[in-house]
C-alpha cells in the first residue's frame, strides 16, 4: 500500500496531469465520476485514401468533457486512468459509445479503428466481451479495427496473438499503432494477424524536411514489408501537402492527419466537408 501510494505521489508531479488538477487520487475520483456521469465522448478523425482524399474510415479518440476544465485530451488523463486500472472501464465505455454512434448515424462504407490499452488485450475475456457488444449493437464486425501498440505485443505475445486470431475469426481487424517507435518490430510482424499498420507520425513529420533521407528510407522499407505481408498501411500525422505527396509517391494508400481532417464529434462528419478535399 505504501509502495502504491509512493507510485501515485510520483505521478502527482507528472506534467501529463490536466491543468488545474494537482492530485492523482482526486483525479481518480473524478475519472470515476466521469464514468458515472457520461463525461467521455469519442471524437472521430477521418482516415483518407491519399489519392483522392476520400474518407474510408475513422479513428475513435477519447475526449473528456470535464465540467470545470473543459474538453480534455488523452495526454492529460490517460496515464492516471491506466495506473489506476480505470482504463478498462473507460475503454469499454468508449468502444460502446463509438460503435453506437457509428451505427446510429449510419456513416456508410467506412471502418472504425478504436484504441485498446495494453492491459486490456491480455484480459482473458477481452475478445468474447467485445464480440458480444458488437453483436448487441448490430454493427458488422468487419467494419471494426482494434488498434494495438507494440508494447502490448511485447508484454505477452502469445496471449495477444490468440486474442487477435479470435477477433479475426469473427471479422474484427487489428492495426499495429505507432509503428516504428517500439522494439523488434520486424521480427514479429509476419506472425501477427494484422489488417493494418500505422506508421508513426514521427517518421511522417520528417518527410518534408531537408536531409530526410533516413526517414524516407525507413518509410519505404515499412511500406515494402507491409505490402509483401498483405498488410494495409496508414500514415499518421500528415500535416503538409509535401508529406502527403511523398507518401503517395512511395505507394502509401491511406493517411490521417490535420491536413486531411482534425478529430471532431461525429456530427461534424455527417455532411461532406471541404476540409477533406
Ligand atoms: P494514437 O492512437 O496514435 O492517435 C493519434 C493521435 O495523433 C491523436 O491524439 C490525434 O489527435 C493525433 N493527431 C492526428 N493527426 C495529427 C497531426 O496531423 N499532427 C499531430 N501532431 N497529431 C495528430 P490524441 O487524440 O490526443 O490521442 C493520443 C493517444 O491517446 C492516441 O494515440 C492513443 O494512443 C490514446 N488514446 C486515444 N483514445 C483512446 C482510447 O479511447 N483508449 C485508449 N486506451 N487510448 C486512447
Ligand atoms: Mg491509436
Ligand atoms: Mg492511432
Ligand atoms: Mg499512433
TrEMBL record:
Report the transmembrane regions from the record. Answer: none
Can you give the residue ranges of the EAL domain?
A: 24-277
Q: What is this protein called?
A: EAL domain-containing protein
Organism of origin is: Rhodanobacter glycinis
| Span covered, complete protein | 709 to 985 of 985
Amino acid at each position: 500500500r505504501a509502495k502504491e501510494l509512493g507510485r501515485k505521489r510520483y505521478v502527482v508531479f507528472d506534467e501529463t496531469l490536466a491543468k488545474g488538477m494537482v492530485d492523482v487520487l482526486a483525479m481518480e475520483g473524478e475519472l470515476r465520476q466521469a464514468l458515472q456521469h457520461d463525461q467521455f465522448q469519442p471524437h472521430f478523425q477521418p482516415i483518407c485514401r491519399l489519392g483522392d482524399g476520400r474518407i474510408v474510415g475513422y479513428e475513435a479518440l477519447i475526449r473528456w468533457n470535464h465540467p470545470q476544465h473543459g474538453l480534455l485530451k488523452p495526454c492529460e488523463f490517460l496515464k492516471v486512468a491506466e495506473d489506476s486500472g480505470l482504463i478498462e472501464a473507460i475503454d469499454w465505455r468508449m468502444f460502446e459509445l463509438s460503435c453506437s454512434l457509428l451505427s446510429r448515424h449510419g456513416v456508410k462504407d467506412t471502418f472504425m479503428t478504436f484504441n485498446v490499452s495494453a492491459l486490456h488485450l491480455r484480459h482473458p475475456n477481452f475478445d468474447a466481451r467485445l464480440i458480444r457488444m458488437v453483436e448487441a449493437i448490430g454493427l458488422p464486425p468487419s467494419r471494426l479495427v482494434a488498434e494495438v501498440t507494440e508494447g502490448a505485443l511485447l508484454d505477452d505475445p502469445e496471449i495477444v496473438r490468440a486474442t487477435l486470431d479470435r477477433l479475426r475469426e469473427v471479422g474484427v481487424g487489428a492495426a499495429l499503432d505507432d509503428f516504428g517507435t517500439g522494439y523488434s518490430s520486424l521480427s514479429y510482424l509476419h506472425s501477427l494477424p494484422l489488417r493494418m499498420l500505422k506508421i508513426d507520425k514521427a517518421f511522417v513529420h520528417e518527410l518534408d524536411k531537408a536531409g530526410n533521407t533516413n526517414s524516407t528510407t525507413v518509410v519505404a522499407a515499412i511500406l515494402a514489408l507491409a505490402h509483401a505481408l498483405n498488410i494495409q498501411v496508414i500514415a499518421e500525422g500528415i500535416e503538409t501537402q509535401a508529406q502527403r505527396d511523398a507518401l503517395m509517391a512511395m505507394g502509401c494508400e491511406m493517411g490521417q492527419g490535420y491536413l486531411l481532417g482534425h478529430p471532431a464529434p461525429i456530427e461534424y462528419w455527417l455532411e461532406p466537408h471541404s476540409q477533406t478535399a
